Amino acid sequence: MKNPPSTYRCPCGATLSLIGGKYKIVILWFLYQNSVLRFNELHRLVPEATTKMLAQQLRELEADKLVERKVYPVVPPKVEYSLTPFGRSVLPVLEAMNAWGASYLEAHGA
Amino acid sequence: MKNPPSTYRCPCGATLSLIGGKYKIVILWFLYQNSVLRFNELHRLVPEATTKMLAQQLRELEADKLVERKVYPVVPPKVEYSLTPFGRSVLPVLEAMNAWGASYLEAHGA
DNA sequence: CGGTATCCGCATCGATACTG
DNA sequence: CAGTATCGATGCGGATACCG
Fold first, then answer.
1. For residue A8, what is the DSSP state?
2. What is the pLDDT of residues B32-58, one digit of tens each?
3. Which one of B9, B15, B28 makes the best mutation probe of the A interface by having the most chain A beta carbons within 10 Å?
4. For residue range A21-63, what is the model confidence (pLDDT) as tens digits?
5. Residue A13, domain extent
6. Strand C contacts (CB < 7 A) among A residues 70-99?
7. Does pTM surpass 0.85?
8. What is the rounded distance in angstroms from the CA atom of residue A30 to the CA atom of residue B43?
9. How far is the C-alpha of A100 from the C-alpha of A50, rounded, in Å?
10. Cα–Cα distance between A100 and A109 in angstroms, integer?
11. How many domains does chain B have?
12. Are A102 and B11 in contact (CB under 8 A)?
């Protein structure tokens, strides 16, 4: 997602540039709920994302230091994803979104 | 933005479907800051949005009852945008995003 | 298991012109 | 002032195939 100039007038823009990707918030949310997840575990939780998209979003989150990727040199391969401390700092945003979304779903037909 | 199936497992998805549009959060933020804004006032605050996009996002926010559009039948035309009570209820999300974005911009080079 | 690589359709978005 | 209409390019993202 682009980093719009009005970032300077609204820091929300900076937030969106980091966690505004199509599946990023959902990924962060499930990683927060589960602490550690392997690729396919995460994929089962977010089945509407293709392998490609899930990997791409994870790479971006990793590049932005929100997510840690730990590779175990074993066969079959084992890779674990978890939140970094910085990633955990997004929690207030996630919780606000989760709470608002939940109340919306409750009010309107879920 | 689409409404992913994992909405059912993560209400954040519902939130994103309402405020996840390209300029929606920034729009909501400025409307919260200013209470009432005319179309061109808002456009000056979000100059990277084209007229088309700004209008489109505002229509969607209006359809979702987050924003109220008040038209004054005068020449030249006068239209005022403001948050509905429901729109104001998103504030916790906006503030969380703003706070996190601000601290990020402070830590890294803005 | 945990991914890449490639191709490509199609929605999104920008640019431009025009209007009440 | 506050938009709409239209066209066309871009790039996101899905489908598929393949790899260490």
1. G
2. 999 999 999 999 999 999 999 999 999
3. B15
4. 999 999 999 999 999 999 999 999 999 999 999 999 999 999 9
5. 5-107
6. 76-79, 81
7. yes
8. 36
9. 27
10. 15
11. 1
12. yes
